[in-house]
Amino acid sequence: xxxxxxxxxxxxxxxxxxxxxxxxxxxxxxxxxxxxxxxxxxxxxxxxxxxxxxxxxxxxxxxxxxxxxxxxxxxxxxxxxxxxxxxxxxxxxxxxxxxxxxxxxxxxxxxxxxxxxxxxxxxxxxxxxxxxxxxxxxxxxxxxxxxxxxxxxxxxxxxxxxxxxxxxxxxxxxxxxxxxxxxxxxxxxxxxxxxxxxxxxxxxxxxxxxxxxxxxxxxxxxxxxxxxxxxxxxxxxxxxxxxxxxxxxxxxxxxxxxxxxxxxxxxxxxxxxxxxxxxxxxxxxxxxxx
Amino acid sequence: xxxxxxxxxxxxxxxxxxxxxxxxxxxxxxxxxxxxxxxxxxxxxxxxxxxxxxxxxxxxxxxxxxxxxxxxxxxxxxxxxxxxxxxxxxxxxxxxxxxxxxxxxxxxxxxxxxxxxxxxxxxxxxxxxxxxxxxxxxxxxxxxxxxxxxxxxxxxxxxxxxxxxxxxxxxxxxxxxxxxxxxxxxxxxxxxxxxxxxxxxxxxxxxxxxxxxxxxxxxxxxxxxxxxxxxxxxxxxxxxxxxxxxxxxxxxxxxxxxxxxxxxxxxxxxxxxxxxxxxxxxxxxxxxxx
Amino acid sequence: xxxxxxxxxxxxxxxxxxxxxxxxxxxxxxxxxxxxxxxxxxxxxxxxxxxxxxxxxxxxxxxxxxxxxxxxxxxxxxxxxxxxxxxxxxxxxxxxxxxxxxxxxxxxxxxxxxxxxxxxxxxxxxxxxxxxxxxxxxxxxxxxxxxxxxxxxxxxxxxxxxxxxxxxxxxxxxxxxxxxxxxxxxxxxxxxxxxxxxxxxxxxxxxxxxxxxxxxxxxxxxxxxxxxxxxxxxxxxxxxxxxxxxxxxxxxxxxxxxxxxxxxxxxxxxxxxxxxxxxxxxxxxxxxxx
Amino acid sequence: xxxxxxxxxxxxxxxxxxxxxxxxxxxxxxxxxxxxxxxxxxxxxxxxxxxxxxxxxxxxxxxxxxxxxxxxxxxxxxxxxxxxxxxxxxxxxxxxxxxxxxxxxxxxxxxxxxxxxxxxxxxxxxxxxxxxxxxxxxxxxxxxxxxxxxxxxxxxxxxxxxxxxxxxxxxxxxxxxxxxxxxxxxxxxxxxxxxxxxxxxxxxxxxxxxxxxxxxxxxxxxxxxxxxxxxxxxxxxxxxxxxxxxxxxxxxxxxxxxxxxxxxxxxxxxxxxxxxxxxxxxxxxxxxxx
Amino acid sequence: xxxxxxxxxxxxxxxxxxxxxxxxxxxxxxxxxxxxxxxxxxxxxxxxxxxxxxxxxxxxxxxxxxxxxxxxxxxxxxxxxxxxxxxxxxxxxxxxxxxxxxxxxxxxxxxxxxxxxxxxxxxxxxxxxxxxxxxxxxxxxxxxxxxxxxxxxxxxxxxxxxxxxxxxxxxxxxxxxxxxxxxxxxxxxxxxxxxxxxxxxxxxxxxxxxxxxxxxxxxxxxxxxxxxxxxxxxxxxxxxxxxxxxxxxxxxxxxxxxxxxxxxxxxxxxxxxxxxxxxxxxxxxxxxxx
Amino acid sequence: xxxxxxxxxxxxxxxxxxxxxxxxxxxxxxxxxxxxxxxxxxxxxxxxxxxxxxxxxxxxxxxxxxxxxxxxxxxxxxxxxxxxxxxxxxxxxxxxxxxxxxxxxxxxxxxxxxxxxxxxxxxxxxxxxxxxxxxxxxxxxxxxxxxxxxxxxxxxxxxxxxxxxxxxxxxxxxxxxxxxxxxxxxxxxxxxxxxxxxxxxxxxxxxxxxxxxxxxxxxxxxxxxxxxxxxxxxxxxxxxxxxxxxxxxxxxxxxxxxxxxxxxxxxxxxxxxxxxxxxxxxxxxxxxxx
Lengths: 290, 290, 290, 290, 290, 290
Prior knowledge:
Six copies of one chain form a homohexamer.
Chain A: H1 14-29, H2 35-40, E1 46-53, E2 57-58, H3 62-72, E3 77-80, E4 87-88, E5 93-100, H4 101-131, E6 138-140, H5 150-159, E7 173-175, H6 177-183, H7 186-196, E8 203-207, H8 210-219, E9 224-228, H9 232-242, E10 247-251, H10 259-263, E11 269-271, H11 274-277, E12 284-289
Parallel strand pairs in A: 6-11, 7-8, 8-9, 9-10, 10-11
Antiparallel strand pairs in A: 1-5, 1-12, 2-4, 3-5
Helix pairs in contact in A: 1-3, 1-4, 3-4, 4-5, 6-7, 8-9
């Protein structure tokens, strides 16, 4: 229902938006509601508001903002001037809102908490994406997300031009060192995984050394190798050894200073936990006229 | 129930922990659960794990970690070496966990997502607190929190030595510029607020100028004045004008470079939105032995 | 959204209304729904109904009634002739409802259960308020509410002209005898409380004797003293001792016969648990024409 | 699980208790929890408490009290000296509780809100039952219950010696005047009801006159007749006319002064809305020693 | 709200439909939503679809289908050509849908999962009903339903011309062999049941032999006897013994081959668990034009 | 926690079991609970029960049965003699249960409704698997599941030796005819899909003809081709054309008579909607001794 606000090609379940916004409004309104507005804003008063960028960045989360106002005033007018994924300059007006003044003021903080957080993720993602645009590497997120907001945060990564890794423990196999050790080695772990999962599930395996990568390549059964904490020289050799057989993902030690060099090794994906666990909020504000 | 893990003096509802952790585990396990562990970890296998700091900081969220493991293995052993609010050095082991290997691996990411996020908030708060320890000013958080995690984040601020502002729109009055404008001025807004709320509700009012502060002081009815975006010279004059009558909170333009000077003006509280909306995660890891 | 039905100045979260009504309808409809109406009311039949007072009182809960009908027939017409807080005479029509006959009959009991209960609270509150109108004392409610309906019941107290005490354990400090004993006395308890809570949290302390009150006044740190089970002579002396420093709340032994004398002692608030735990329902009925 | 606390023969779903108690605790603890206890009660402190009657009455709701303490301290000791349905004298100790002091104080109000409300219902029910014990009439409740607590309140009626009417709109047919009018008369309404419902559903029909009762008796298909607002003379004639064919329920104008005379007419049941919508709380308290 | 889609005389709670459909959509959309449609269907694209029978049967569940589309596109047009309970021939178009193409495709499977399952139940029920239409026997369902869908499945039985047995453990008494044994025999069990339940609750008792039936008839207090696993000769003798006193329900060994003979014994009801636990889905499809 | 009851290699989220069982118990207990047991079973009575196969089949759902008893009696003893995936002969005892008699009787139907339904799915799956065991083909399920039970049903397919297809719309791409048409052909649809989804998402595409398969093979970007409604001759040619490049899934017209021939064409997977939408329940019973 919010599809005109979303970045094209990225679906965001209406239930994810509706439920997260409702939970946030309930959290903020508490038992007694907005007691300041109840005391000071006359019934029937209307307000106009502009969702405005205070700093440059990339927009994400407009559907959450619209939903926050709508839940407190179903007759709210929400006009988007931008859509998710659009770049913002300081002063840009992302959306204009008109409706019941109490509803606008009561929903303001929740609307901003979603959009500043998600736009912060989109903005940081876009910075990483810009650093690697001369290469084939894609910037991907991880499962290091803020609890309860995974679907929204993964969507925000898409708004910034990044791609998504697993959404959870159940939609792809990722064999790590502990799994390998317990299963009895790479060969055994890959065989067990292949035997266990269906034909629409991909298998990724973490390797810490080129020897491990060689064993993975020999064994077969993996779709992706996760090259963990390798330096760029080692990554280059991994890319050569691989010769295009597996998709290669680099992780570890990735930041805005190092990402270009990592991308230039020829890996396919670079995963960055900071996109979702450490992105500072983008400064957006709501200019209200009553 | 988690009280031995919490920072003393700060209560955290067991339901807040239980519900947030359950939601996060459900989010991560999805429909099919941890398909990698199911394929590779033999039934009955046990694991030991250490929750270890990779970088220095302040610990917060241990109860969430314990709860994550407990929900997947009620018989888990969780021994805390530290408690929330404790400083951590790189390499410090905050807790040791022993139990079903699948449960440990399946809960790992959720446990870390809580503790790294909340410890990040505590760590950033502690940095601000350290900058003002020579003054009377307290560092306080705002309502600029990640949707759905407010109680946990406000608790994390306490772990870092900060204090809490309102938890929501319903537990205190905060009259802002729009409320003043609509209500017909400071006098009218303060009267309306006092008439509307009960005897256990405090009233704070935002002022942008010393003239406004003077009017607030003359009118009475406020407990706290929020001095918004004033420079330090103006803050000092506000402190003088106030002469101890109201609690004074400074906000706007606060960062680690400016906070000491702001505190030295003599204000009582300095509110910092970044504590909760922009704190980078603290790097904690789980070292697992199976 | 229901703001035109509410008593001015009192905010009632739309989620509180929506959730409580939905829970009540689900409770009443059970698994099979209204089997009597299903058997006897033809599809498409319409009904008109009048929410009518059978006894005099004060109206509260109109938004709940409207919501009950709306949830079973989104196209229902609900016209309010009165609004919450209005006095009702026997025979007064508070609202008129028109819509699908099955929906009207199926929602009738839930709509009445809310309005008769909440109006009962408002009516009893108004009786207490009338007894003290010649004094400065305000009638306030307590946390002795029916489980699950606190926000609605506290709102109903406002409809009757009363004011609200704490909404829960988290929005103000109330130090009672046990807290004092364990903390090591009044001084220690007040210091611990002040150190623990933020600048927007008020502190109330219960005192059973004038000596205790003297100690509270000397110690400082409290905003309100709760004078528990004192007779009127003692209350008067407490008012004198206090000399306007703290807000004073009287509690214990309050009923419609005693409240005026208590108010005349000069206390600021009188708290009455019976407002919410023992108010008889106000007799309202739904006159339906099909 | 609470069966040893319950009145024999009355089942109370463990989920009804667990869910209602959890909702009430969450409502009371809010976002920040019990901030007074957090500030003043040292970690690890233990408390003993006695649930004590301050006034005579009939006990109901012990399982809810036990559950409230248990949810905040799973290791709580709860020893019942009485069980639901037992008469209480002022001073009687219904139960003793020992456990974590913060948990005891934080759960106190919720535990009392359930037991005082439900015991109030049981006590009022017992008063009605006592008035009619020389007759065959049973005292039954109605659907006029506090929203969200129906199952608990109906159970409390059982604790007081009363019996239950319908639990909702779906477990029995009750044809009222509007249903009769729309369906085209008593005959048509009864036929429609019988044709629509299964073989385990009883049919009751409201009659306002003896003519209507005669028609019901002639038509067949009803199990129970609800004699609405008839005086005792009319009730007696109804009992005679009925000659034992249908169960007869009297309603309307029932109070403690009138109920005996109504019962002496020979009706089988007397329904009393006030049992659940207007019962004052029974005064119970918690005496805590820390 | 869905009443025009429902079989007349059978009420289906709007909450039952809304909640079951929402749960199913959330289950299907998961965290990331319909990623195929997001990638391939342009924003704003519209679709027309026809809900078409591929095999003959009886329709049930149209309201669920409508609700599934509506939840993903509130502006969907849903035109029903049939209503629940109608017979379908292969090729019949039960409903036509027009709206947002992504919404139509994303809701398709959920809409079909409800309608094919519920129509399967209606179709199997109708087959049993057809076999006994020359007798007085009614076909009734049991509590052997798919967990979570009981209200919907019982409604589907009604769509097929069957009647409903108990909806749960709480709306009627059914005394089985174990209850009899523990209670101390038929007499004791019936007395205990009658003493325990209200006047609107029917009592059914299972009997395995004619001796038991004789004892039930002699004891009184039962409304219905469940004749369990009796052959037709025995059933006939039970009908004779009963002489119309109790309603008689036959169960055990009922299938489409045996049901007519069972019905011809004169029993009132024949209960068939297979209606809800083993009905194959009816083949319905959605023909979409975009 | 239930891992010892599960089929090895298949993870079933404890939350999926806990939530589905709770919902089912609440559905069955309703408002008043098990009124028959409350009336007839003395407090403290214990029962022993045996979960016994009445017909041969394959067991699935033991964890749900255990959970149902446990939720009504946390101290229940549940000893499994079999585990999920085990074959059952008529008379085999899958598990023995000992505990509170009321709890055993009240949970009986829910425990059976889960195990008979899930074992029915496992049994039907095993029948299909047996027919193709001489081939390389795997039997896979679809999204044609009973609403609300998908995770459990997909697990039951695994118990019967089948494999899982997509769990929802979000964990893999499946491009169908409508997507192809709207996207502008196979090439465009595959490109759009690949560009839109992450590196751990597989792409399957439905083809109705060998020409379409050829185009898919030429285009690249697909991992799996779904050969829809092709006869065995065509399937054989598809297998030849494919030459091992893509995984091939056959669907349409699959039943126990046709599946072997389909498997012999050399396809990799055969998907069967009937496994989950039309499997009759397996006859299991609970033999209770009190």
